[in-house]
Amino acid sequence: MTVPQSADDLASTALEHKLNGTTNGHANGTNGTKPSLPTLDASKLTVTLADPSARTVPDEVTACSGTETICTDHMITVSWSLSKGWSNPELKPYGPLTLMPTASVLHYATECFEGLKAFRGFDGKLRLFRPDCNARRMLMSTLRISLPGFDPVELEKLIIALMAVDGPKWLPKSRPGSFLYIRPAVIGTQPQLGVQAAKEALLFITASFMPRMDSPPGGMKLHTNPEDMVRAWVGGFGYAKVGANYGPSLLATQEARERGFGQILWLYGPEGYCTEAGASNFFIVWRRKEGQLQLITAPLDDKLILDGVTRRSVVELARERLAGELEVVERKYTIDEVLEADKEGRIVEAFAAGTAFFICPVSQIHHRGADVHIPMGKANVGGDYTSKIKSWISDIMYGNEQHPWGVVIEEKE
Amino acid sequence: MTVPQSADDLASTALEHKLNGTTNGHANGTNGTKPSLPTLDASKLTVTLADPSARTVPDEVTACSGTETICTDHMITVSWSLSKGWSNPELKPYGPLTLMPTASVLHYATECFEGLKAFRGFDGKLRLFRPDCNARRMLMSTLRISLPGFDPVELEKLIIALMAVDGPKWLPKSRPGSFLYIRPAVIGTQPQLGVQAAKEALLFITASFMPRMDSPPGGMKLHTNPEDMVRAWVGGFGYAKVGANYGPSLLATQEARERGFGQILWLYGPEGYCTEAGASNFFIVWRRKEGQLQLITAPLDDKLILDGVTRRSVVELARERLAGELEVVERKYTIDEVLEADKEGRIVEAFAAGTAFFICPVSQIHHRGADVHIPMGKANVGGDYTSKIKSWISDIMYGNEQHPWGVVIEEKE
């Protein structure tokens, strides 16, 4: 790596250099790994199968009712070290990880993850939704938290390999319309208490049940964050899917829930810019004072928010299929604009968008004593635009519409 | 817990309420734990000793030369769950932890820690330095990251119990002037991928070797952070010792090291306020334009920086013992003030202060092409004030001065 000589662009260029060095298929050269060391290589996957009769597949409601996440029969793990590069990936029975008490991840949050879903289509096929987007974002998050780089195409192949094995049993063809949640993660495992980039790491992928969260009765209710607590900031890491964005947000969320709200609407700065709804992106359909319909969401350019795959899909589909009906706008907008629009009766719909919550209609925003009530449509399950966008994406996920975003997995049966 | 009814002080009051509810010795009522459940109780410690002949104690240099942190024979673990409260603490042989791949800490950085040292005094006694400060801060960090509360006095007792067992062997009387590093931590262990406060947790305490970092040849060299990367922000969690403050800082630190600098001097805001030096607090001795000597460091009130135990001790001792000679000032000051003072020849000394780096003289600050070179004293090991303060604290740690901050541990021999 060439060290940039300009003194004032220390780390930002570091990240760019690392990203440029890892997306071309030669996945190392990051975190000090020598270019000659093994890279992440899905073709080297070794397979150790679990006894298929050892566990039966629970029904969805039972699976999601406990305090533990129920995973499928297998997981994939790949270890990395600065001196040896990436090991051969292993597909093996799901089970615990062993870490030394001094492991980097347990102290310094050297961790990042992704979330995507696998869908059993109504056409019987097994699909992922835009897994390339998740794999590329995972690389960015991994480098941001000083963990080792890899070729995202190889990660995508590993995700597909896990679902090819566990899909037939855990997303059976008898359950069209069901999904599993896939969680790739990279953690720093070096047993070393010095505050430094981890010289050992583990990439692992699990697949599990997850409750459906896209239709809470009465819609999602948002409470704005307290003035003295913000989620992310300019110059921070709000755009990366690193653990450090999540733990610190729990305190505000916990108390909002005690007050009957589902998520925090995170505002930013003295202006009160609307950024994210909980750990999802946030959209409003409103009418401008001049009468024009807009679908508005926070922009990506200041790196405060996650570049959500669902967000991106909403923006792209709305621009393509609602052109003429409404304008899609990515810009900063404030909670005061929202309150004003509400007062003037210009708010049409709102929804949160993300992998976990999918497209979840928002019915209320509470901000310092004021309440914005948002129409939920005739059937009370979300407004027309929310429902329309949701069904478009859903149709791609479950194979009602053949679309390049729906990646069919060839199953081992 | 009474839920505060004012809408705009959601989480800050939550933290205050939790802190008030846990420092009175009735340690629960936090994170939803029922008051009737068992609290953290050091008197219930169970002891399972390792074979003392299984491992020999390495010399300090060997112990610190590898890529792994060498821990002592034992560790203490205490598990917690929302339904059962705190389990009985266990002192047992040091060894790996087992976590499910879905454990909260591995994804959401539900983790916090402390760092303190045990010292083998020149009077033969084993001491801790102000462990009460660490235990109280650990409670604050634990609650900030939505992990379960406890009575900090019990944590202090557990730290003492571990050192009472491992101190005689690992800090032998034949090595006066040596120390071990003690690392208590709390992590969220619940195997659940939902973004929520963990309903299961583990508190663990290890003791290990750590390199001496207070005297790098030529002094510590600081590089200011890149403009687009900040460590902490107002409304964030820079004051808490949570993992989320560390991992994201590694990228900038890594690149600074490639340029020959030891740590980042973290500036804040467009004004460029000086906050922390790496993961240590930062002090400058300078002369005001009017000629008066000042020891200056960043203030605690905006919650950007850690309330360091070493920082606090420096401030208190300097106020007590250098009164009349210099004024101790905790206020915001900018990098431009530092550059100006340097240009006018008013910078006398500078040092980083923390448990890991102890009192470490700073010899250089690089900021956007400009270099501030700071006097290192006649012997090139730090200026007079730096050395004086360092020796005062060192004398308390190693028993050359009897002082309430040096807590003597009664050893099991």
Describe this structure as you would to a colleague.
- Two copies of one chain form a homodimer.
- Residues 1-8 and 23-32 of chain A have low confidence and may be disordered.
- Chain A is built from nine helices and 20 strands.
- In chain A, strands 1, 2, 3, 4, 6, 7, 8, 9, 10 and 20 form a ten-stranded mixed beta sheet that branches.
- The first copy, chain A, has 413 residues and is α+β, with helices and mostly antiparallel strands.
- Chain A starts with 9 loop residues before the first helix and ends with a strand.
- The first copy, chain A, is globular.
- In chain A, α4 crosses α5.
- At the A-B interface, α1, β5, α3, β9 and β10 of A face α1, β5, α3, β9 and β10 of B.
- Chains A, B: Residues 19-39 are annotated as: Disordered.
- Chains A, B: Pfam families: Aminotran_4.
Summarize the structure.
The structure is a homodimer of 413-residue chains. With 413 residues, the first copy, chain A, is an alpha+beta fold. Helices cover 24% and strands 26% of the residues of chain A.
What's the structural blueprint in terms of helices and strands?
The structure is a homodimer.
Chain A: H1 10-22, E1 46-47, H2 60-63, E2 74-81, E3 85-86, E4 90-93, E5 97-99, H3 104-108, E6 111-113, E7 116-120, E8 126-129, H4 131-144, H5 152-170, E9 179-188, E10 200-208, E11 220-224, H6 250-258, E12 263-268, E13 273-277, E14 280-287, E15 293-297, H7 309-321, E16 327-330, H8 335-343, E17 347-354, E18 358-367, E19 370-373, H9 384-397, E20 406-409
Parallel strand pairs in A: 1-4, 11-12, 11-18, 15-16
Antiparallel strand pairs in A: 2-3, 2-4, 2-10, 6-9, 7-8, 7-9, 8-20, 9-10, 12-13, 13-14, 14-15, 14-17, 17-18, 18-19
